[in-house]
Design brief:
- The structure holds 3 protein chains of 3 kinds.
- Chain A is an all-alpha fold.
- In chain A, about 75% of the residues lie in helices and about 0% in strands.
- In chain A, helix 1 runs antiparallel to helix 2, helix 2 runs parallel beside helix 5 and helix 4 runs antiparallel to helix 5.
- Chain B has 2 domains: about 80 residues, no CATH class; about 70 residues, no CATH class.
- Chain C has one domain: Helix Hairpins, CATH 1.10.287.
- In chain C, helix 1 packs antiparallel against helix 2 and helix 2 packs antiparallel against helix 3.
- The longest helix of chain C has about 30 residues.
- The chains are: A mainly alpha, B mainly alpha, C mainly alpha.
- The interface between B and C is large, with 92 and 84 residues.
């Protein structure tokens, strides 16, 4: 199944054209989440959708060279640790856990920094978990034969 | 009034879809109907002013979830037209639960009542502080990341753990085979 | 009649919840049980979001033109719950795939009879 994927030229050309705009849209949703609908959860899923599209059209082995499995697993952990790390940093700056007011001299700016970092952590975790889910489901069954 | 009519129509479609999911036996049809179900849900959320929730449902529910279900259905055998099991106890359970829930919802405020208790407690403060202190227009992001930061941390850890569980369940064979392979090589030496 | 259209979301909540439960209990196919679980969850999501609605309000994104906003707190709870729901149903699907690999069927009664055979 890994190499049996026979994609028509239309699919491969369209997916190559769409790949970059999908990721840019994901980044827009991620960083515009303060001003409009969006945020880490949605952006993570949109970025993951671009990589899933690539793996679906060009086969799983090419998708795994684009996002190596071990790097994907490290990024899963880094996302959660980034979220928890923001809380730890605010403890060291004489605040409570996940109290963003102390991250900057101005409490309002501190909240901005904290919210952007936390949403980034959520986005990284969701994106990498979704890619890992797709890769696990797609690679199941072919290894046992 | 338009809002109520659209809501009535969409919710009725949702119920019809649920009925057909119950009736269908072919797995790939069930998966397709589930995709339609989640897309209808996101339309309902837009109509009920929950734009963030609708965005999430459209991306996660009808996007990733449908892809995963199609991949699972492709690896599973075609569904069989088997008899329903546990029919009698489940009817009794369904009737009992519906009766309890009907008694409860009879005391709830009507849809869209601005004086319902849920709208009077902490939420006015959230709206006011978002304007005066945070300067971030999207109140949902404020509550998600700042006021309810612990909650979101927990949810992120749940997603991470579910991902770990799927990886352990579906790709552990490669690990086993690799270790066996190594053992065999050692034995050969 | 007017009250009926106001209560329709609440009735739909009951029907969806009971319907999801019914699919989980009565159907033999494990993939359909996972779908039933998703319907059960969605019932709760629709109920929460319809509690948050304020008539004549707008989406909770602050603008100068609006004077009433819908309640953002249930939106936050449901937003995270949807993503968690998909992650957990992926876990359920992974379990179904493993069951299929070991028993070569995903119908409940057939697995029961296989278990009885292996006990003898």
């Amino acid at each position: 199944m890994r190499d049996k994927i026979s994609s028509s030229p239309v699919l491969s050309v369209v997916s190559k054209i769409l790949f970059a705009p999908i990721i840019i849209f994901g980044l827009y949703v991620q960083f515009h989440g303060d001003y409009g609908p969006g945020g880490g959860f949605q952006a993570g899923v949109i970025v993951a959708a671009a990589f899933i599209l690539y793996s679906m059209i060009f086969g799983l082995s090419k998708g795994e060279t684009l996002v190596p499995i071990m790097i994907n697993r490290y990024l899963m952990c880094i996302g959660v640790l980034l979220y928890a790390g923001v809380g730890i940093v605010s403890i060291f700056l004489d605040g409570m856990y996940l109290d963003y007011n102390v991250l900057s001299s101005d409490p309002s700016t501190g909240q901005h920094i904290g919210i952007i970092l936390v949403e980034l952590g959520v986005g990284i975790t969701v994106a990498t978990v979704m890619i890992a889910l797709y890769h696990s489901f797609a690679s199941f069954g072919e290894i046992n034969d | 009034m338009n809002f109520l009519l659209i809501n009535f129509f969409l919710i009725s479609l949702l119920l019809v879809t649920t009925f057909f999911i119950f009736k269908t036996t072919s797995l790939i049809s069930v998966v397709a109907l589930t995709g339609a179900f989640t897309l209808l849900c996101s339309a309902i959320y837009v109509n009920l002013d929950a734009v963030d929730v609708a965005f999430t449902e459209a991306a996660v529910g009808s996007g990733i979830s449908t892809i995963l279900m199609v991949m699972a259905a492709a690896k599973l055998p075609e569904g069989k037209k088997n008899k329903l099991i546990n029919l009698f106890p489940s009817i009794i359970l369904a009737v009992a639960i519906s009766l309890i829930l009907i008694i409860i919802i009879a005391n709830l405020p009507l849809l869209g009542d601005p004086n319902a208790p849920i709208h009077l407690h902490v939420v006015p403060e959230y709206l006011k502080e978002s304007k005066d202190f945070f300067h971030i227009p999207n109140v949902v992001t404020n509550i998600l990341a700042s006021y309810r930061g612990f909650d979101t941390l927990g949810e992120t850890i749940v997603i991470f753990t579910a991902g770990l569980g799927v990886i352990a369940l579906l790709t552990s064979n490669t690990l086993n085979r690799k270790t066996n392979f190594k053992k065999n090589k050692k034995n050969e030496r | 009649m007017i009250n009926f259209i106001y209560f329709w979301n609440h009735f739909a909540f009951i029907l969806l919840m009971v319907g999801g439960l019914f699919i989980i209990i009565t159907s033999q196919n494990y993939l359909k049980k996972v779908v039933g679980l998703a319907i059960f969850q969605t019932a709760v999501f629709v109920f929460f979001v319809s509690l948050a609605k304020v008539l004549d309000g707008t989406a909770p994104i602050l603008t100068k033109m609006a004077n009433a906003y819908s309640n953002p707190l249930p939106h936050v709870l449901i937003l995270t719950a949807i993503v968690v729901g998909v992650a957990t149903s992926a876990l359920g699907l992974a379990l179904v795939l493993q069951i299929y690999k070991n028993y070569e069927t995903i119908e409940e009664k057939e697995i029961e009879s296989l278990e009885l055979k292996s006990d003898k």
